[in-house]
Specification:
6-stranded parallel β-sheet, 9 strands
């Protein structure tokens, strides 16, 4: 099996690494946090001191990162991976980035004989751990061929979106747009229910079995009922992702009124001090006593 590298051992990256270990790959990883690296090594992985050291021993490098700045640092910064990857290696970039960015990275890597897939993931850490993610990927056929085993080990569905990098990030942007709107709508609906005297648990059970439900309603509202906003989908990430969609839409002259309204809600929640809390913490803007209503 190929030697596979992972950079970024957050909840998603760690779950991807574990799925690859179960599939029999030799998995190497780098993360600047010693605590998560130790967990990875205890699970059977091998740690690397920096991205360059990691790149020197792998055939396929998977970046599970947050944004452009992290991708730039890992690939092209001091001790970056790009200078150490061998010709013909594949870099799988899974990050929330503007849709035009992957094409520029692909060109820079191609100058070194390195292939790239623009391959954002969706489904969260639980799906990643089970190997049933969805991956929205675009890039050259040779990159798909070389990375096929890795993609199959971590994803239930791989959407091949063509040869041009950027299409994966475009689909991811649309997915995040819908997530943001659905989370904002779930918060609004629950706030209204509490304000008009409905039992919040009854609202949740009734709606999740009705036509008004959504994946976000089902997954996020239990955290409201438990008054627990610590899950790893923060408000600030939604501010960033909806902002990316709005910026791209403006360039194409497309109004996105629902996205704009949701973005304003998340931005207000961030300003109110909830930027690091789970995205459904946007419900706190309504100042509804959900916890007391539940108890």
């Amino acid at each position: 099996m190929s030697n596979v590298g992972i950079v970024g051992l957050g909840p998603m990256g760690m779950a991807v690494a574990r799925a690859l270990l179960r599939a029999g790959f030799a998995v190497h990883a780098h993360d600047p946090r010693p605590s998560v690296t130790q967990v990875f090594v205890a699970a059977g992985g091998r740690a690397a001191a920096d991205p360059a050291a990691l790149a020197a021993v792998v055939d396929i490098l998977v970046l599970v990162l947050a944004n452009v700045a992290e991708v730039e640092l890992v690939l092209f910064g001091p001790n970056g991976a790009a200078v150490a990857l061998s010709e013909g290696a594949v870099v799988v970039v899974s990050a929330a980035v503007p849709p035009d960015y992957p094409e520029t990275v692909s060109r820079r890597l191609a100058g070194r004989g390195i292939l790239m897939l623009d391959a954002p993931m969706s489904g969260g850490g639980l799906a990643a751990g089970k190997g049933v993610l969805s991956i929205m990927a675009s890039g050259p056929p040779a990159a798909f061929d070389k990375a096929a085993g890795v993609l199959d080990a971590i994803a239930e569905k791989v959407f091949r979106l063509g040869d041009r990098p950027g299409q994966g990030s475009r689909l991811k942007m649309i997915n995040q747009l819908l997530i943001g709107i659905h989370v904002a709508a779930a918060a609004e609906a629950m706030a209204l229910g509490v304000r008009i005297g409905c039992d919040p648990r009854v609202v949740y059970e009734a709606i999740r079995h009705s036509a008004g439900s959504s994946v976000m309603f089902e997954s996020r509202v239990p955290h409201v009922l438990a008054d627990d906003y610590t899950a790893p989908f923060p408000v600030d990430t939604m501010v960033r992702d909806l902002g990316t969609a709005l910026d791209d839409a403006r360039r194409h002259g497309i109004p996105l009124p629902l996205t704009d309204a949701a973005h304003q809600q998340f931005a207000a929640a961030s300003t109110a001090g909830y930027g690091g809390a789970e995205d459904i913490a946007v419900i706190k803007l309504f100042e509804v006593p959900v916890k007391s209503a539940v108890t």
